Amino acid sequence: QVQLVESGGGSVQAGDSLRLSCAASVRTFSTFAMGWFRQAPGKEREFVGEIAWSGGRTYYADSVKGRFTISRDNAKNVVYLQMNSLKPEDTAVYYCRAFRAGSDYWGQGTQVTVSS
User: Fold this and answer.
1) Which of 14, 22, 25, 63 could form a disulfide with 96 if both were Cys (CB 3.0 to 4.6 A apart)?
2) Cβ atoms of residues 36 and 99 within 8 Å
3) Contact at 8 Å (CB) between 38 and 48?
């Protein structure tokens, strides 16, 4: 069983930055690809970005490309989401996901609110 705990959310102004963290309680963290998703009120959960198990490849949704950066520290079992130039439309609950063949785990989410 993998437990994922997100942190770092909060309320900010448009243009500000936030860094979210997701800590994983699993010894095999480095074997999981890690992803970030978000869900705004009244909307479906959407893909934000993901990073390969090695950290060598990252992928982003067009809506955040150039503003958000995903990184990971396999020694600390943590994945990060650096969010810059935040916009009101980035307001959502942000979820961390750990996945590999046959396994898929989600965190409880952390709220990010961006006001104009």
Assistant:
1) 22
2) no
3) yes
Which amino acid belongs to residue 32? F
87 C-beta neighbours (distance < 10 Å), count: 14
Instruction: Give CA separation, 78 vs 21, 41, 44, 73, 96, in Å.
Output: 7, 27, 26, 5, 10
Provide CB contacts within 8 A for 62, sequence distance 6+: none
Per-residue pLDDT tens over the stretch 54-87: 888 999 999 999 999 999 999 999 999 999 999 9
Q: Which letter does DSSP use for residue 43 in this model?
A: S
Candidates 80, 92, 79; CA nearest to 38 is 92
Residues in the chain: 116
Dihedrals φ, ψ of 59, to 5°? -135, 145
Tokens of 112: 């990010």
Structure tokens at 114: 């961006």
- Return the residue matching tokens 């104009």: 116
